[in-house]
C-alpha cells in the first residue's frame, strides 16, 4: 500500500472527524486481528474445522494478520501524518517493502483452495484419500505461494525505498516507467490473474462433476457391475458434497476480495497513469482513505465469512467468546471482592487515636 504521489501533503480534516475516522479504523483492525487469531489458534490446536482446506485457511489467516498488523498501520500513519515517517529507517527500508508480500499470500491462498478442489476431482481422489494427504506437497505449495508473492510484490520495492533521516520521509523512489511496470505487474499478479484462475478452476470442476454424474446415469445396470456402480456413485456423491462445501466458502471470499481490493488497484493505476497534478489533493486523500479501509475490511471480514458459512467454526467462535467472557467476568468479580475486603479491613482499623492525641496537648 505504497505510493510516492501522495507523500507530501493531503487534506486535513477537522479534529473531530479525524478522531472518529481513526477510531473506526482501529476498530476494524482489532476485530480482524481477534477473528484471525481465533482461526489460527483453533487450527493449530488440531481442530479439523475446514478439513482439506485447513492448511490454506491457516496461510490466509497469517496473511490477513500481516495486513492488519503491518500494512494497515503503515497506511494509517501515511494518511494522518503525510510526509513524515516516525518508525525509523529500519522499518522503512525493510519492513515496509516486505509487507507487500501479504497481499499475494492472501489471494493465492484462496486460489490454492480452488485449485486443490479441482485436482481432487480431476484425479478422482475420494474422501478417504483426502485424509491421507501428502503433507510435503501441501507444504511445498504454501512455501511456493509465499516465496513467489515475495519475489513479485515484496522484492522490487526493496531496491527503491529511500529514507531521509533529516526530514523523516519514507517512500519508494520510482521512475515513471518503473512505477508503471510495477503497478501493472501487481495488478495482474495480485488481482486479475488470481480471479481468472479461480473462475477457471471452478468452471472446470463443475464440468467434470457434471460429466461424471451424467456418465453414471447413462450406465446400463447389470448384476456384475452393480457393486462397482454403487461404489462409483458413492465416491461421486462424496466429491460433489466436498465441492459444494468448498464453493460455499471460496465464493464469498472471492467476492469479498474482488469488491474490496478493486479500489486499491484502481488507485495505484490512477497514480501510475494519470496526471496527478491535475487531480485535487482532497480527492486523492479521500480516495486513499477509502482504499485503506477497504483493504482492512477484506482481511478483517474473512473470519466472519467462516462464521457464516461453517457451522462448526461458528460454534468454536461462540465457545471461545463465552470462555473469554467468563474469564473476564471471573477476574472482575475477584477484583471487586478484593477491593471490598480491603475497604472492610481498612474500616475496621480506623480509630480516633489521632484525634485524641491531638486534643491531649490542650488538657
Automatic annotation (TrEMBL):
SUPFAM superfamilies: Family A G protein-coupled receptor-like. It is found in: Membrane. This is Galanin receptor type 2. The chain crosses the membrane at residues 20-44, 56-74, 94-115, 138-159, 179-202, 249-273, 285-309. Gene3D superfamilies: Rhodopsin 7-helix transmembrane proteins. Its main location: membrane. Residues 35-306 form the G-protein coupled receptors family 1 profile domain. The keyword Ligase does not apply. InterPro entries: GPCR_Rhodpsn (IPR000276), GPCR_Rhodpsn_7TM (IPR017452). Keywords: G-protein coupled receptor, Membrane, Receptor, Transducer, Transmembrane, Transmembrane helix. It is a multi-pass membrane protein. GO terms for cellular component: plasma membrane. Belongs to the G-protein coupled receptor 1 family.
Amino acid at each position: 500500500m505504497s505510493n510516492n504521489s501522495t507523500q507530501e501533503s493531503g487534506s486535513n480534516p477537522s479534529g473531530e472527524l479525524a478522531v472518529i475516522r481513526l477510531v473506526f479504523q482501529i476498530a476494524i483492525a482489532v476485530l480482524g486481528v481477534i477473528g484471525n487469531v481465533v482461526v489460527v489458534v483453533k487450527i493449530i490446536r488440531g481442530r479439523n474445522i475446514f478439513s482439506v482446506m485447513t492448511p490454506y485457511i491457516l496461510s490466509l489467516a497469517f496473511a490477513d494478520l500481516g495486513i492488519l498488523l503491518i500494512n494497515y498501520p503503515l497506511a494509517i500513519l501515511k494518511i494522518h501524518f503525510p510526509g513524515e515517517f516516525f518508525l525509523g529507517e529500519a522499518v522503512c527500508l525493510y519492513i515496509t517493502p516486505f509487507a507487500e508480500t501479504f497481499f499475494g499470500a492472501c489471494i493465492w491462498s484462496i486460489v490454492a483452495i480452488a485449485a486443490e478442489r479441482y485436482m481432487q476431482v480431476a484425479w478422482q481422489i475420494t474422501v478417504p484419500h483426502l485424509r491421507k494427504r501428502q503433507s510435503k506437497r501441501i507444504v511445498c505449495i504454501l512455501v511456493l505461494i509465499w516465496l513467489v508473492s515475495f519475489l513479485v510484490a515484496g522484492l522490487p520495492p526493496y531496491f527503491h525505498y529511500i529514507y531521509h533521516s533529516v526530514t523523516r520521509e519514507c517512500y519508494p523512489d520510482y521512475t515513471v516507467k518503473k512505477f508503471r511496470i510495477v503497478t501493472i505487474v501487481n495488478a495482474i499478479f495480485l488481482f486479475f490473474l488470481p480471479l481468472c484462475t479461480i473462475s477457471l478452476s471452478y468452471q472446470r470442476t463443475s464440468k467434470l462433476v457434471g460429466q461424471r454424474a451424467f456418465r453414471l446415469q447413462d450406465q446400463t445396470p447389470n448384476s456384475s457391475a452393480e457393486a462397482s456402480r454403487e461404489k462409483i456413485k458413492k465416491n461421486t456423491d462424496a466429491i460433489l458434497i466436498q465441492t459444494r462445501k468448498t464453493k460455499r466458502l471460496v465464493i464469498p471470499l472471492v467476492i469479498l476480495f474482488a469488491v474490496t481490493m478493486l479500489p486499491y488497484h484502481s488507485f495505484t493505476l490512477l497514480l501510475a497513469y494519470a496526471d496527478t497534478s491535475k487531480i485535487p489533493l482532497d480527492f486523492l486523500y479521500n480516495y486513499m482513505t477509502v482504499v485503506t479501509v477497504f483493504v482492512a475490511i477484506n482481511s478483517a471480514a474473512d473470519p466472519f465469512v467462516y462464521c457464516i458459512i461453517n457451522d462448526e467454526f461458528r460454534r468454536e467462535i461462540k465457545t471461545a467468546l463465552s470462555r473469554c467472557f467468563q474469564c473476564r467476568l471471573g477476574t472482575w468479580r475477584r477484583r471487586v471482592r478484593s477491593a471490598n475486603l480491603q475497604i472492610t479491613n481498612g474500616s475496621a482499623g480506623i480509630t480516633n487515636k489521632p484525634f485524641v492525641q491531638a486534643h491531649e496537648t490542650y488538657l
